[in-house]
Write a structure and sequence with these properties.
The protein has 393 residues and is α+β, with helices and mostly antiparallel strands. The protein is built from 22 helices and 11 strands.
């Protein structure tokens, strides 16, 4: 074990043990501990029934109590504690009809998706449970289904994209039968709710090895089902930026209507708007653009996203030098980039022009902004008033 297990997790196991309940750390955290990586969260499996777990702790949320899961809050952390269970028959390729509580950890592990995710560890007893060779696969760098891959992908279509997601984020190989089974169960994958697919896809796309992940999605046929618009994208280019949203923008750059695609994937309005802005911010100013040109671009690009917009364009054009430092320096001078930062407000403009509020004022302030983007030192009441009077003539 290369990574310290948090005190709260040990305390939780102690408390369950004192009440006579067998329990283990399980799933992703065991995998990550063995890899020497800090787990994102700690899940536990126990023989105790949800009500018994509840009785052991002060702060418990009945997260999914009918499926055997409660969340225990302890030492500032939260833990999902799930009663050993197996899953009844899957009828629709999405969710089991029923779950059954079980009495052994091995039965619980056998319902899990991949061998590397089907290990359990109890640090109090230093007890490992690894019935499917997860440790060996972890060492080999191999994503392999627990049991028969075709059957596991028939039960639950989400597992197909999870296999590729883990192969990508861990930079592992897909075991041969696991990989071969994916194209044979596309019909089951196609039934999965798009939000669940999207979450796995985003984890894949955020990974350093995302280019390989995209290629696996393409070659197994999964991409054609949930994101055919990205099939002809250049994956090397799209995965050049480090950030997730520029990657997404680059995948959708050539589709005629990226908004429709983002909405079909049920992205939030905020994410959709950001990705669209990253696309609209292209093309970038040329590498040797002058300051005025950079300010005009910044003014059009919604400010919070300029870095992502820049990363998107620089990847697209495979630029070797970045404009980032020059833009930082420009922004440090705090230039007016929008009409509300002009030294003259709409009312004052109206007074000078002798006109009522209306489109004329808007036109005047856009004219002033254009001048100020050209030359920021013009942004004073006097200089703008002068410009305005000349404009009005
Ligand atoms: P991550 O670090 O990305 O959260 P994880 O392994 O914890 O990875 P989760 O999606 O949080 O992944 O799932 C927790 C555990 O539940 C997995 O390790 C696996 O044992 C099991 N699991 C999750 N989804 C499935 C599934 N569709 N079929 C079978 N087992 C699953
Ligand atoms: Mg997890």
């Amino acid at each position: 074990m290369h990574f310290p297990i948090p005190k709260a997790a040990l305390q939780l196991l102690h408390t369950l043990k004192a009440a006579g309940h067998e329990a283990f750390l399980v799933g992703g955290c065991v995998r990550d501990l063995l890899r020497g990586k800090a787990p994102g969260d700690y899940d536990l499996a126990t023989r105790a029934r949800p009500e018994e777990v509840r009785a052991c702790f002060r702060k418990v949320i009945p997260t999914g109590i009918q499926h055997g899961t409660v969340t225990v809050l302890l030492g500032g952390m939260s833990f999902e504690v799930t009663t050993y269970r197996s899953e009844g028959d899957y009828v629709d390729g999405r969710r089991p009809l029923a779950v059954h509580f079980e009495s052994s950890i091995e039965e619980d592990l056998s319902r899990r998706d991949f061998t590397i995710n089907a290990m359990a560890y109890n640090p109090l007893e230093n007890c490992w449970v690894d019935p499917f060779g997860g440790k060996v696969d972890l060492q080999k760098g191999c994503v392999r289904c627990v049991g028969d891959a075709l059957q596991r992908f028939s039960e639950d279509g989400l597992r197909a994209i999870r296999a590729i997601r883990f192969a990508t984020t861990l930079n592992f190989e897909l075991e041969e039968n696991t990989q071969k089974a994916i194209p044979q169960r596309l019909n089951v994958f196609a039934k999965i709710a798009i939000e669940r697919i999207r979450e796995e896809f985003l984890k894949l796309l955020a990974a350093p090895q995302a280019q390989r992940g995209m290629e696996l999605l393409l070659h197994t046929g999964l991409l054609e089902i949930f994101l055919p618009e990205a099939m002809h994208a250049d994956f090397a280019t799209a995965t050049r930026p480090a950030q997730l949203l520029p990657r997404l923008a680059l995948l959708l750059m050539k589709t005629p209507n990226p908004q429709t695609v983002l909405q079909r994937l049920k992205f939030s309005n905020k994410t959709t708007a950001t990705v669209l802005q990253l696309i609209e911010a292209q093309p970038l100013p040329p590498p040797h653009a002058n300051d005025a040109c950079l300010r005009r671009w910044l003014s059009q690009t919604k400010l919070p996203h300029w870095k992502e917009a820049l990363a998107t364009g620089e990847a697209l054009e495979a630029r070797e030098e970045s404009l980032a430092q020059r833009i930082e320096a420009l922004l440090a001078q705090n230039p007016a980039l929008s009409v509300d930062k002009l030294a003259l407000r709409g009312k004052e403009i109206g007074l000078i022009l002798g006109s009522r509020p209306g489109p004329h004022i808007g036109k005047a302030s856009r004219f002033l902004l254009k001048k100020v983007l050209e030359n920021p030192s013009l942004n004073s009441k006097e200089a703008l008033s002068q410009l305005l009077r000349n404009w009005n003539k």
